[in-house]
Write a structure and sequence with these properties.
This protein is mainly α. It has 2 domains: about 1-90, no CATH class; about 90-310, Orthogonal Bundle (MetI-like fold), CATH 1.10.3720. It contains 14 helices and no strands. It has helices at about 1-30, 35-40, 40-45, 50-55, 65-75, 90-125, 130-145, 145-160, 175-210, 215-220, 225-235, 240-265, 270-280, 280-310. Helix 8 (about 145-160) crosses helix 12 (about 240-265). The protein starts with a helix and ends in a 7-residue tail after the last helix.
């Protein structure tokens, strides 16, 4: 297992390097002079000498690959530069916002599992029943709904009309656990509803395949309780595709926070990316996107490692 993880980490390095190269190149592909874009309103009144001084101060007068290698060398040492807006180290901004995004991602994943897995199990056990058709119809509907549109709908119903939950904002967990949960319920559901629907469909498909296996019939013939047969024997062997979806979902959640955090004004990594792009703060945007890409890669690696614990028959040499 250790050798496999080491090999996977080595394989992640070229992909991460390519991602940083594409991400860094976006600054030079945007229209206009990057120096003028970074100066913002100051560029309108600045003299050519001041613009050139700004360009030299931040190394923007250097060739592309020199700028990239300098940034990459500093990033490998944990230095992602300073924000052009507030002059704070980018690592400090990320350290403040990353726990918020991870909390939102974790809650949305838990909600998706709690909703999707039981729905899929019930749908498989009661195949072709009204319950099965109900779960299937709602799964198709939730998959088709864009999460930003669902977020707006949730705000209108539960925050504006019913006034059960706050419209937007974030309450730290250490400050008020109940308020923290209320502030994250709507965004977590909007973010995890798609995965819950996909998970329900996948669980149903996997359970239907497993429930017709010989060892399930043997377990029933031994007189085991149906709940024990379904949860202990059938579900455990249907978890492999579910774990795969879980790894993909974690990566999708990290990317989806860009939209959801903007809609609900949650100060996480997604809002940092949007604010940095709008403010032409390339240094902060590059650092935030780098962390999100790394998080997606790590989630996929954890999903592969989980296979061994779900199914002991899987061995990594």
């Amino acid at each position: 297992m250790k050798a496999y993880m080491a090999r996977r980490i080595v394989q992640m390095a070229p992909a991460l390097l390519l991602a940083t190269l594409v991400m860094f190149s976006m600054v030079f592909l945007l229209p206009g002079d990057p120096t003028v874009n970074l100066m913002g309103e100051e560029a309108a009144t600045a003299t050519p000498e001041q613009i050139e001084a700004f360009r030299q101060r931040y190394g923007l007068d250097q060739p592309f690959f020199i700028q990239y290698t300098t940034w990459l060398k500093n990033a490998l040492q944990g230095d992602l530069g300073r924000s052009f807006r507030n002059r704070e180290p980018v690592t400090e901004s990320i350290a403040t916002r990353l726990p918020v995004t991870l909390e939102l991602a974790l809650l949305s994943t838990v909600m998706a599992i709690v909703i999707g897995v039981p729905a899929g199990i019930v749908s498989a056990i009661k195949r072709n029943s009204i319950m099965d058709m109900f779960v299937t119809a709602f799964s198709v509907m939730w998959v088709a709904l864009p999460n930003f549109w669902l977020a707006i709908l949730l705000i209108m119903v539960f925050a504006v009309m019913l006034e059960w939950l706050p419209v937007a904002g974030y309450v730290p967990l250490a400050l008020d656990p109940v308020g923290n949960l209320k502030s994250l319920l709507l965004p977590a559901f909007a973010l995890g509803s798609h995965y819950a629907a996909v998970l329900a469909r996948q669980t149903r498909s996997g359970m239907l395949e497993v429930l017709h296996q010989d060892y399930i019939r043997t377990a029933r013939a031994k007189g085991l309780h149906e709940r024990r047969v379904v949860l202990l024997h059938a579900l455990k062997n249907a978890l492999i595709p579910i774990v795969t979806l879980l790894g993909l979902h974690l990566g999708r959640v990290l990317g989806g926070t860009v939209i959801i955090e903007t809609v609900f004004a949650i100060p996480g990594m997604g809002l940092l990316v949007i604010a940095s792009i709008h403010g032409r703060d390339y240094m902060a945007a590059q650092g935030a996107i780098l962390v999100l890409v790394l998080g997606i890669m790590i989630s996929n690696l954890l999903a592969d490692v989980t296979y061994v614990y779900v199914d002991p028959r899987i061995k990594y040499s």
